Amino acid sequence: MRLVLVGPPGAGKGTQAEFIAAHLAVPKISTGDIFRANVSQGTPLGVEAKRYMDAGQLVPDEVTINMVRDRLAEPDASDGFLLDGFPRTVPQASALDKLLADLGTALDIVMELVVDDDEVIRRLSGRRTCRGCGKIWHVEFDPTSKDNICDRCGSELFQRDDDKAETIANRLVEYADKTAPLVDFYGAQGKLVGIDATGPVEDVTVRAIDALRSYGG
Ligand code: AMP
User: Fold this and answer.
1) What is residue 28's DSSP assignment?
2) At how many degrees (to 10) do helices 181-188 and 90-102 cross?
3) Angle value at C-alpha 187, between 184 and 193, nearest 5 degrees
4) Model confidence at 216, in pLDDT bands (50, 70, 90)?
5) What integer is the mean pLDDT of 123-134?
6) pLDDT band for position 196 (cuts 50, 70, 90)
7) Across the chain, what does the average pLDDT equal?
8) Is there a catalytic annotation at residue 71?
9) Which long-range contacts (CB under 8 A, 24 or more apart) does 198-203 make?
10) Ligand 1: which residue has its CA nearest to atom 2?
11) Buried b vs exposed e over 146-158: b needs ≥16 C-beta within 10 Å?
12) Exactly one of 28, 36, 127, 128 is catalytic; which is it?
């Protein structure tokens, strides 16, 4: 199955993508993760992407599309994939359609995780990441027993630059301007399935998997 997950930053795309990809036995391809890996390795792509990421802006389409084209050409993606965080603009969505058409295939479903702005702000501003093992905590919903220290590995926690208040505001504006139009784009193709992404993580996963079942997933 070829699936795209869309939703505002903080909708829980990364978390749900893990579960859904495991359920479907397809690779999870997250453009945010690929950019972050490039940033931490200091590659030219990472250096370019970081400027945009730290400002809460989208990396330019051309750079992002080329990166996804290369990733989808890898053998593990030939029978299906779950894209998390891509496409994020209408030109990216059109490029993806074309890229898949050239391979003789197409997307099956686009799942939208629906959450309102207030909830997004609460979720993102409280998010903390461990410097050691990368585990994500939340000051309110999933706190560590000692402030700012990871319960799993004892390392210090930090706040991702793009989870800081001013950057969150920019990310939400970017989402409304550039990504929300994808809902109409895929709605017109009859591929859009909306899921209520509020409440406990497990409940959202159950909703997502139930919705996929009705599409044969
Ligand atoms: P994410 O982890 O998906 O929230 O992505 C983190 C950041 O990476 C975003 O705020 C963007 O700067 C960049 N990014 C990720 N995916 C895309 C994309 N499809 N198009 C442009 N920029 C992206």
Assistant:
1) E
2) 40
3) 120
4) confident
5) 93
6) very high
7) 94
8) no
9) 198/115, 198/119, 201/12, 201/15, 201/16
10) 32
11) eeeebeeeeeebe
12) 127
- Can 13 be counted among the known catalytic residues? yes
The whole-number average pLDDT for the span 102-110 is 94
Q: What are the start-end ranges of the H helices in the chain?
A: 13-24, 31-41, 44-54, 61-72, 90-102, 117-125, 165-174, 181-188, 201-213
Exposed, middle or buried: residue 113 (CB in 10 Å: 0-12, 13-18, 19+)?
Answer: buried
Coil, helix or strand at residue 35 = helix
Q: Is 141 left (phi over 0), alpha (psi -120 to 50) or beta?
A: alpha
- What CA–CA distance (Å, rounded) separates 18 from 38? 20
Ligand 1 centroid, distance to 161 Cα (angstroms)? 13
Residue 30 banded pLDDT, cuts 50, 70, 90: very high
What are the structural domains, with CATH classification, of the chain? Answer: 2-26+79-213 (3.40.50.300)
Q: Probe ligand 1: pick from 13, 16, 31, max atoms within 8 Å of CB?
A: 31
Spatial distance between the Cα atoms of 53 and 133, rounded to a whole number of angstroms? 21
145, exposed or middle or buried, with CB in 10 Å at 0-12, 13-18, 19+? exposed
